Amino acid sequence: MHWIAPTPDPDADRITRFPTVPKHIAIIMDGNGRWAKQRGQQRIAGHWEGANRVDDITTECAKLGVSYLTLYAFSTENWNRPAAEISMLMQILIHYLKTMEKKLVQNRIRLIAQGSVERLPLNARKQLDRTQEKTADYAPRMYLNLSLSYGSRQELLDATKQIARKYADGELSLDSLGENDLKNYFYQPHVPDPELLIRSGGESRLSNFLLWQAAYAEFFVTETLWPDFREASLHEAINYYTGRERRFGKTSEQVRPSENSFAEESNS
């Protein structure tokens, strides 16, 4: 795939209501089954409603000026679910891709995917390929990165295997291997690390999602189940992010030198 950097939305400054909007937001969309159970419905009803939230949140992120949105849609561990539920989840995926295709094009949102997508059923892979192709013919406003049949441990293992093969063929020196070199073997090496990672449904674990990439992400966990996660919930998460001091191992004085210099001058 030819990679093009996202182009800023000319209306983003007018629309944005936050001092800082993360360049990359990642979301673990959890709670569909519990949402349905609370209403006396089958789990699949929660997944259908959750697909509607994908539409809403994707559109809102693009409006706010987010450049990358990564959604944990189907994990490698999800293959262990009952066959009937997996089949219905694949049907929802196909339906979502078909119905969202035109809207993604109109909003200049380019669809990409990461994971062991070769494990998806043939009809799901064909629709995924079609939608990616349809959204690839313009400078994107935002990338929508669907994590499908994705597991971070598998991603790290696949990257390690590629490096081992290159080393065995004499194409790579281990002494020259750095962090960025390893990332070049990830499923989507051009996607920057997320600054904000949101998990709906109240659980506070990563669940094998972006273990490497989320090393310095700010975590926002909400009790709100994914089918109830709307624009206001997204805004709450972004507000939380704007209040965080991102030091990356440094001190507050190092990341905010101008503020601390002013305070020292005022106290002198």
Structural summary, described in words:
- Helix 2 packs across helix 3 and helix 3 packs parallel to helix 4.
- The C terminus is likely disordered.
- With 268 residues, this protein is of the alpha/beta class.
- The longest helix has 24 residues.
- 44% of the residues lie in helices and 13% in strands.
Q: What is the helix/strand order?
A: HEHHEHEHEHHEEHHH
Structural class: alpha/beta
Radius of gyration: 20 Å
Mean pLDDT metric: 90
Biggest sheet strand line-up? 3-4-2-1-5-6
Low-pLDDT sequence parts: 261-266
Mind describing the biggest β-sheet?
A: 6 strands, parallel
Number of helices: 10
Strand content: 5-15%
Helix content: 40-55%
Element layout with pairings:
Blueprint: H1 12-15, E1 24-28, H2 32-38, H3 43-64, E2 68-75, H4 83-106, E3 109-114, H5 122-134, E4 142-150, H6 152-168, H7 179-183, E5 196-199, E6 218-221, H8 231-242, H9 252-255, H10 257-267
Parallel strand pairs: 1-2, 1-5, 2-4, 3-4, 5-6
Helix pairs in contact: 2-3, 3-4, 4-5
